[in-house]
UniProtKB/TrEMBL annotation:
Keyword Nucleus: yes
Gene designation per UniProt: wdr75
Protein name as annotated: WD repeat-containing protein 75 isoform X1
Keyword match rRNA processing: yes
Domain WD repeat-containing protein 75 second beta-propeller: from-to ranges: 341-661
Localization terms from the record: Nucleus, Nucleolus
């Protein structure tokens, strides 16, 4: 339970892994990259995430290796801190508080105890002017240390990717716009070099990136026109020279020298890694078709491994510019998401547009792409102005057995091409297989579609600007796993030639609500129009039924900034409020609803129940711009929160996309503490990736050890045993030899397992000891007859003692058959 549940908006799952240049460790076994508010540690061979270094409270903006310890890295963040990590164990070693938002970090082996960071010239995140400063890290045993000793090095620099240390750390070069600035530390002097904007056609001389040669005085710069310039003699302002290399037809996004300086690597929009020979500039090697545009290049310290970051949120690991050895794929974020955000009922994965013509299935729990589903099934041609099919709509049924997609293409001078596809889930391949394709299902663009949650039938409803909504029904005798499954159009409906804009099923599938401009129509499963609901002026933009105890309510938003709630039992307006709701989302596991409202260029969030007048939670200025896509994802483990304003996060987690395509969610302090504790508790070997199979195998091994280890549940021996005391305290010269007493002593330590066997297998015990019981009873009868008693008398009647149980009788017989000859030999001695 949490006393104070503070809710924060955080990056968690699906963050950009191409935001900054990745880092390869000295042994080339691990790759580290910034991912939202954490640092991901990936295995370079298995592609699995080994550690998730969490601790920053804002976006991580840079990672560098610690020059004095190859097992440590520095990370910086917009939260104003620099943190030192042991990435092999996933442990935070120290936190240096700078006090300014940090956008990049650089280190040099020749500048011990100093890191160079890029901070705004004004202490404000909205500042557009940045400076490079040196931060002296104080030595202290405390885990949190204030590092306020800053010294300016360069002014007016780019926030990222435009600074590099030269040979032996003697100078640092930075590029911005048309200016290249080189600062010499010994001279404490900087030289600036300028390029002309370029009067020729297609000449764009602006700097895009910079990299310094590790062994010689040479600076390589990339430019918008695709050229690479190699600068020399720059220690004198008037005698500098440069040579030009040109292969890229677009801007050079990144440059990187190899550790020995023999090769120069470059990348750009062509998605080709180019390797230039430093001494033979006309010789080049190419590694093409790497995916999206290359944004960053990193090289391992030994030069055996390269990695490239790409615009499609991917990192490619390359072995010495020869072949691709591994690919780490993040959540693909294109220019826009047209399918909305969905949750796969089977895998609980986030589903949305991915690569062109594909749907991506992304695990939010593992923060990993599961697979891409090719919807269009046509080769995508990367050419501007070419009209190609795009996936614009998608929907799952409640069980995850069926997936419906809509793809469309608009060509100049021709009609709109639309395909409706039905995909059946295949248990063998664990993926969706195309079942039915409907060409031109509507005469105009499809604006929305949804499956009926009713378990009795499998039905899909689509609505279009052609003025109709259609119900597509799976045949009753069709098996989803059979090849004969067929879909057909069951009903076509409309309302006074109005164009429908949205639709929604009730939780039990008994009602269908379709919004026709300013009128809401409610239909029964037999396609009878039950009622119509009117509202204040404005077209209906979104409809949503209440859940559970609020199932009698229907909510809708309009283009005239109104949020309305109707009572379906009375068919009347329950309440309405003037608010510009850009998105209305219902939690499928509770009565809660989330309304994203747009106001003054920002988005506000209100979480409420339709039956209550006051919201459960509200947050102003959630993000800039409008929120157009959001989804409630069910939790694997339910949270426990006693704060009323945080209870709406107990069952589900709300994810939303900002206008900058950042996937955000909400986190409570209790959840962050639990994640931090679990990350500290999970200590695995460096080379072992934390996969679900590994976790399952580790749990199985623990269970096996608990069963096979006799010490785990061993019964404690009596500490005051008389026999043991006599054996330990009796003088050695009066005791028999140790070999003689060994077997007797060990036997005394053994614990009889007969009680346990009696509890677990009483039937077998009775069957095995049946003969012994008969023999024992005969012996007891003989003993009674010798004593002159009657055989019919029981032992309790003879001796006046309680009757013995069967277990006690078996123990008595065992003692009787025991060999006591060793005792007589002792007495004879």
């Amino acid at each position: 339970m949490v006393a104070h549940a503070e809710i924060r908006v955080v990056h968690r799952g699906g963050s950009k892994i191409n935001f900054r240049e990745p880092v390869i460790t000295n042994d080339s076994r691990f790759l580290l990259c910034a991912s939202g508010e954490s640092v991901k540690v990936y295995s370079s061979s298995s592609e699995e995430c080994v550690h998730d270094l969490q601790g920053h409270t804002d976006l991580v903006s840079g990672i560098v290796r610690n020059p004095s310890n190859h097992l440590q890295v520095y990370s910086c963040s917009a939260d104003g801190t620099v943190r030192l990590w042991d990435f092999t164990d996933g442990i935070l070693i120290k936190t240096f508080i700078i006090g300014y938002p940090i956008y990049s970090i650089y280190v040099s082996e020749n500048h011990g105890g100093v890191v160079f960071v890029v901070v705004p010239m004004a202490n404000d995140k909205s500042s557009e002017l940045f400076q490079l400063v040196a931060v002296h890290l104080p030595r202290s045993e405390d885990q949190e240390v204030e590092a306020r000793e800053l010294s300016a090095v360069l002014c007016d620099v780019r926030p990222s990717g435009a600074a590099s240390f030269g040979r032996e750390g003697e100078y640092i070069a930075a590029a911005k716009g048309l200016q290249l600035e080189v600062f010499f530390f010994k001279k404490q002097k900087s030289y600036r070099f300028f390029l002309k904007p370029g009067n020729k056609k297609w000449a764009k001389n602006a700097f895009t990136c910079v990299s310094c040669h590790p062994k010689e005085d040479c600076i390589a710069t990339g430019h918008e026109d695709g050229k690479i310039r190699l600068w020399r003699n720059f220690n004198q302002k008037k005698e500098y020279t440069y040579s030009t290399l040109h292969w890229h037809h677009g801007a050079v996004n990144t440059l990187q020298f190899t550790p020995e300086g023999t090769n120069l690597l470059s990348g750009g929009i062509e998605s080709v890694l180019v390797q230039w020979r430093y001494t033979q500039e006309t010789q080049m090697d190419f590694l093409p078709r790497l995916g999206g545009a290359i944004t960053h290049i990193a090289v391992s310290p030994d030069g055996s491994l390269f990695c490239t970051s790409h615009s499609d949120n991917k990192i490619t690991i390359i072995q010495s510019c020869v072949k691709v050895s591994a690919v780490i794929q993040g959540l693909v974020k294109g220019e826009g998401v047209r399918t909305n955000l969905m949750i796969d009922p089977r895998s609980k994965a986030l589903v949305l547009n991915g690569k062109p013509g594909h749907l991506q299935f992304y695990s939010l729990h593992r923060d990993k792409l599961l697979y891409n589903l090719d919807i269009v099934q046509q080769e995508y041609i990367h050419e501007e102005g070419l009209d190609q099919f795009e996936v614009v709509r998608a929907a799952f049924d409640t069980r995850g057995d069926w997936l419906a997609t809509v793809e469309e293409r608009t060509q100049k001078g021709s009609e709109l091409e639309i395909n409706l596809k039905m995909w059946a889930y295949d248990e063998k391949t664990q993926s969706f297989v195309l079942n039915t394709t409907v060409t031109a299902p509507h005469d105009d663009q499809i604006t929305a579609m949804c499956f009926s949650p009713s378990p009795e039938t499998t039905m899909l409803v689509t609505i279009s600007f052609d003025g109709h909504f259609k119900a597509w029904l799976l045949a009753d005798n069709s098996d989803t796993t059979a090849e004969g499954a067929s879909w057909s159009c069951d009903f076509v409906g409309g309302y006074h030639l109005l164009k429908p804009g949205c639709c929604c099923f009730s939780a039990d599938g008994s009602l269908l609500a379709v919004g026709f401009q300013e009128v809401v129509t409610v239909w029964s499963p037999s396609w009878e129009l039950l009622t119509t609901l009117s509202q204040p002026p404005g077209a209906i933009r979104d409809l949503c039924f209440g859940r559970l105890s609020c199932s009698k309510y229907l909510l809708g938003t309009s283009t005239k900034n109104q949020l309305c709630c109707w009572n379906l039992l009375t068919c009347s307006l329950e309440w309405s409020t003037p608010v510009d709701v850009s998105l209305l989302q219902a939690d499928p596991l509770s009565e809660n609803m989330a309304a994203f409202c747009s106001q003054s260029g920002c988005s506000d969030l209100f979480v409420f129940k339709p039956s209550e007048p006051l919201p459960l939670y509200s947050q102003r200025a959630l993000c800039t711009g409008k929120v157009q896509h959001a989804v409630f994802a069910p939790r694997d483990q339910m949270l426990e929160s006693c704060e009323e304003h945080a209870q709406w996060l107990n069952r589900s987690q709300l994810y939303f996309l900002t206008q900058h395509m950042d996937l955000m969610t909400f986190s409570t302090k209790s959840e962050e503490d639990r994640l931090l504790a679990s990350s500290k508790r999970l200590m695995v070997d460096d080379s072992v990736a934390v996969t679900p199979f590994y976790l399952l195998l580790g749990k199985h091994r623990q269970q096996q050890e608990a069963l096979t280890n006799p010490m785990a549940e061993r019964i404690q021996l009596p500490q005051g045993s008389i026999a043991i005391k006599e054996l330990l305290y009796t003088p050695a010269h009066v005791l028999p030899s140790a070999s003689f007493l060994c077997s007797m002593f060990v036997r005394s330590l053994l614990i009889s397992s007969s009680p346990a066997r009696e509890e677990k297998e009483p039937v077998e015990e009775e069957m095995e000891s049946e003969e012994e019981d008969s023999e024992g009873e005969a012996e007891l009868r003989d003993a009674r007859q010798d004593l002159g008693g009657s055989a019919a008398w029981g032992p309790g009647e003879e001796l006046g003692a309680p009757a013995l149980t069967k277990a006690q009788e078996r123990e008595l017989r065992r003692v009787k058959h025991f060999d006591h000859s060793w005792l007589s030999s002792l007495l004879e001695c």
